[in-house]
Amino acid sequence: MRRVKVIGPPGTGKTTWMINQIAELIRRGYEPSSILATTFTRPGRRAIRQKVMELLRPERLVRRKSDIHWLGRTIHSVCKELLGIESKYVIDYWKLKEFCNAYGYRITQDQDYSGEEEGEYKEMMLVTAEDYYLHFIEWARHRCISDFETALYKFTRAYMDELPPEFNVASLRTFVQRYEEWKKENSYWDFTDFLQAVVKERLRPEGIRVICVDEAQDLSPLLWKVVSIWAYGCEVAIFVGDYLQSLYEFSGGDPSLLRDCYANETVFLEQSHRVPKKVWELDKRVMTSFRHWYEKDYLPTGEEGFVKAILPEELPRILDTGKKVFVMHRTRKLAGDFGEYLLSCGVLFKALRGRKTAIQRKEFELAVMLKKLAEGGSVPIDEFASLVADTSLIPSALYMRHGAKTELKRIANDNPDMEVTKDKLSALGFNMEFIKRLEQGRIFDLIKMEEKEKRVMEKMFAHLGESVANIEIYNGTIHAFKGEECDIAVINPALTRKTMLNMLSDPQEEARCFHVAITRAREGVYILRGMGKAEFPL
């Protein structure tokens, strides 16, 4: 068995290396359906599937997305499929809300909390005692600690400085019991139930000969058990990651599992294609001050780059450059507060993950596509189908033939390179009334939404038009930008009381977080000053 460990510092092309390996294995005769490739992030999933298609479609080795069923999947989604669980039984925001209402619990989650099968790691919102009770359940299971007393001892040691006054053992026991009973009564599953069931039943995808695990530094002991079961019997197992970019220890991620895992082949990717010299120097200075660095240096690009300190009031001028900018913060609260400040300065921005801003709503995205069609342009059929066939944004009873949405999805799958134009709409199942209103520019009459929302969206559309696609300013937490890159990184080094306490108890974890923030930048880094009483030392 070939077992490969790939360590890739920021910008060295870890995912690209893995994709090239997958393509080469398919060229050697491995069926695409015999290769399983997992990752945690949406960018990683998109990159794996799209780039494999781009590499191999010209060679006719892969023709449609269904050929690469196991590529670009999350571990959780694979588990859900192996177990045959229907989505209606997966716990989401609304089901969790029902549980809380039944017992008077207060859990700080918004509608972005989802039981969807994607299973992407989410940032924890720990405010109330019940937040910590729910987190305890996940924390213990991901660490494979089945004994309650042992788990409680380790959990309270880890969180002793931040547990709310209402947290107590008796209430925790009751919460755990009620949560498990509620799941059993309703046949509900949460993400971690998927993992535990697959480990217990030792389920693995049939016919898998190769397994590739991206972002392996974020595997918890439970996740590691799952991929180990899948790797057993494979001819090739590839584990790709960077133990200094581990951000999810709070959810059970254990970077030592990657660092110490057995491999008969180890690859260190040393050349960064992103990080310029000045940014690399800041990164190394910060990380080595916390006694944290790689066994050998990775290499910066040939660009000089820059690192500058600025005040918040200078930022709007800097943002007005047309470059891709990430404004990164340690917590959601800091990101939310700064987002309000940006809006007060007239700066519009987007979010990469979590709750979308107004200019990112699917309704707006569909309106941009329809306007392009109305003006004689074209749009990719896969993007068009995802907004029309996979949603109820366009009322099919009013504007489409019976079965047209299903047919549109089939055409998109069979002809992924096809471009949709106004002349093709009739053949794709849209009726004359739809085409007439489109030609009249009555775009928002075609999109299903409340009248009040429609008027607001129309005003926003009239003001921004298609230029919304050119807005490249993103505001959010450092965790939200993992796996992404930008031209300019703006870093808020402020720490809340909770993150300050975490820095005192585990300074290397905080250092890894800011290591990720610093190394998103292709050109340079701005460090915000005067943002708080306590700051991470940048």
Explained architecture:
This protein has 21 helices and 13 strands. Strand 4, helix 9 (221-231) and strand 5 (236-241) form a beta-alpha-beta unit. It is 43% helix and 11% strand. The chain is globular, with a radius of gyration of 24 Å. The model has no long low-confidence stretch (mean pLDDT 88). It has helices at 14-27, 42-56, 75-83, 93-103, 129-142, 148-159, 169-186, 191-201, 221-231, 256-259, 277-289, 315-319, 332-344, 362-374, 381-388, 396-399, 404-414, 432-439, 451-464, 497-505, 507-518; strands at residues 2-7, 35-38, 71-73, 210-213, 236-241, 265-268, 306-310, 325-329, 379-380, 419-420, 473-477, 486-491, 521-528. The protein has 538 residues and is α/β, with parallel strands linked by helices. Strands 3-2-4-5-1-6 form a 6-stranded parallel β-sheet, with helices on both faces. Helix 1 runs parallel beside helix 2 (42-56), helix 11 packs antiparallel against helix 21 (507-518) and helix 15 runs antiparallel to helix 17 (404-414).
Record keyword descriptors for this entry:
538 residues, alpha/beta, five-stranded parallel β-sheet
